[in-house]
Design a protein that fits this description.
Blueprint lengths: L6 H13 L8 H8 L8 H9 L7 H10 L13 H10 L6 H17 L4 H13 L3 H19 L11 E2 L4 H9 L4 E8 L2 E6 L8 E5 L1 H10 L7 H4 L1 E8 L6 H10 L2 E5 L4 E6 L4 H10 L2 E6 L4 E5 L8 E8 L2 E7 L4 E8 L1
Parallel strand pairs: 1-4
Antiparallel strand pairs: 2-3, 3-4, 5-6, 5-12, 6-7, 7-8, 8-9, 9-10, 10-11, 11-12
Length: about 350
């Protein structure tokens, strides 16, 4: 199950993508105004009700106001994390699933979607579970909901340039869209102002990568952490990880988090970077191998530390360097979640 591609998303969305060649960037200010107006056809409770009932007659503007308007709702988060999501992911790790597993995918999925209604991966795997369990009416509804979300995203651009970037409200949707339009992630990610640039593997169209505007996610992260500008000299030295804010019931992630809490990040004067840990778990060993022989650079405008080499554009990993209430944190943003390290300089 864990290797299942997003075929349902691809099938449902490519058709609509081909039918609407006119791309338009979302005007967040205008959307915010309209979804709060009870007399507007775009009043958010009305749109959400249509989405919940899987109304396939929604217009493109309704879909766009629904998707992009979610960033102004209390439930909006820049990443998808929850205890139920950990349990959901754990089920997907199994090589073979039985009826009980499919029922749990449906149950945990329903819980996740209450606060993260546009989680495409949950909707996709639920769709498969509905099919396996013969729940046709819900399978049709989830297919319609997937189409509503992806139509909105695909209406915003083609991703070929920053000017025609896809606009997404959460980082995981970047990787979902890659699958939807038939590309595979090439392994390199770069943050350019408010844009994420993802490389793609070799393809017939000879496209090297795609751009995604992630301004809502960046804005949300800035709200969560008060930041100030630091100098490179402030970072040089050894930083001991004393706590990882996120917790997980997923066995692999829990083991990885435990390993991080006995680890250190070393930023040398010559810009070499080292990760050291006394933990020898599989996850930590894999992380150490991924870091390899790396260098680091610091972008003070974004308080962003980038790890890698000049050849890979320092794209192995990025840490956001932030301070809050006298404490220092390194924040790793990944496709599905973020990890927040509370650190002390030794």
């Amino acid at each position: 199950m864990k290797n299942t591609f997003l075929l349902i998303l691809t099938f449902l969305s490519i058709i609509s993508f081909a039918q609407d060649p006119e791309f338009r960037k979302p005007n967040y200010d205008e959307i915010k105004k309209e979804i709060k107006d009870a007399n507007s056809v775009y009043y958010y409770p009305k749109l959400k009700q249509k989405f919940d009932s899987a109304d396939f007659t929604m217009s493109m503007e309704e879909k766009r106001h629904l998707y992009y308007g979610f960033v102004f709702q209390d439930d909006y988060s820049a990443e998808y994390t929850s205890k139920n999501r950990d349990k959901f992911i754990e089920i997907l790790q199994k090589k073979e699933l039985n009826e009980i597993d499919y029922d749990q995918i449906i149950s945990y999925g329903d819980s996740i979607l209450k606060t993260s209604p546009f989680d495409l991966r949950v909707l996709n795997y639920q769709n498969i579970a509905f099919d396996k369990r013969g729940i046709t009416n819900r399978m049709i509804s989830s297919s319609s909901q997937i189409r509503i979300i992806t139509n909105a995203i695909l209406s915003s651009g083609d991703g070929l340039t920053k000017e025609s970037a896809f606009y997404v409200t959460t980082i995981s949707h970047e990787y979902d869209i890659l699958n939807i339009i038939g590309f595979e992630f090439g392994g390199s990610q770069s943050l350019i102002k408010t844009y994420d640039y993802l490389t793609v593997k070799e393809n017939e169209d000879k496209i090297k990568g795609l751009y995604f505007d992630i301004s809502p996610s960046l804005a949300k992260l800035d709200i969560n952490f008060s930041t100030e500008t630091f100098k490179k000299e402030d970072l040089i030295g050894t930083w001991k990880i004393i706590n990882v804010l996120e917790k997980s019931q997923n066995k692999y992630l829990a083991e990885l988090i435990k390993g991080f809490e006995v680890s250190s990040l070393i930023f040398n004067q010559d810009n070499t970077f080292h990760f050291k840990s006394t933990n020898k778990s599989r996850g930590i060993l894999e992380f150490t191998k991924m870091m390899g022989t790396s260098n680091w650079i610091y972008d003070p405008n974004k308080n962003l530390i980038k790890i890698g080499t000049k050849k890979d554009h320092y794209s192995v990993m990025g840490f956001k360097f932030v301070q809050k209430e006298g404490k220092t944190f390194f924040v790793i943003e990944d496709t599905d979640m973020k990890l927040t390290f509370e650190v002390q300089k030794t």
